[in-house]
Amino acid sequence: GNSVTQMEGPVTLSEEAFLTINCTYTATGYPSLFWYVQYPGEGLQLLLKATKADDKGSNKGFEATYRKETTSFHLEKGSVQVSDSAVYFCASTLGYTDKLIFGTGTRLQVFP
Amino acid sequence: EADIYQTPRYLVIGTGKKITLECSQTMGHDKMYWYQQDPGMELHLIHYSYGVNSTEKGDLSSESTVSRIRTEHFPLTLESARPSHTSQYLCASSPSGQETQYFGPGTRLLVL
Q: pLDDT > 70: what percent of chain B?
């Protein structure tokens, strides 16, 4: 069945370090892929998305490329800030429904 | 981006009480969703609606019920709260023809 797998956290980095959070998916058809971010005490916010193979989603310095051949959608940022500390969720559309399936979330902690 | 509101933000209540968690959105989105987020951060879809008078159960069995009498309003009710209902509840909405879901800030429920 459909699933989304992302790396376990916490990921702990110093400010200005390079960030990668891995995400892979299994799906029937061609799902759309998303990264959401959840700051402490808040709901999820859409960070970026990609709807077809080779698309690159980008926002606030974060990027992710839809790789059909490796069924991956890894999140990257070249230089993280303390304010990026949050939980990041990878998500995929579920088949031909309007539902999303989420990974288990990866907590990022950035220290000055 | 959608304006989506949840009240209350925090609720502490005793076992056996009836509670209703409110969710409203002002963007006229047809699709609305309720998720339960456990302390390990994972999100589970418990209810969804594709429009007025349409409600469906999600992937995680829940003792809660929902209603959709108006497009903008999607309340969730627990007839008799139990400690096992302690969790964060997130509401989301999405316009027809789109896959992106927009989340409210969440309600954190503690049942004693």
A: 98
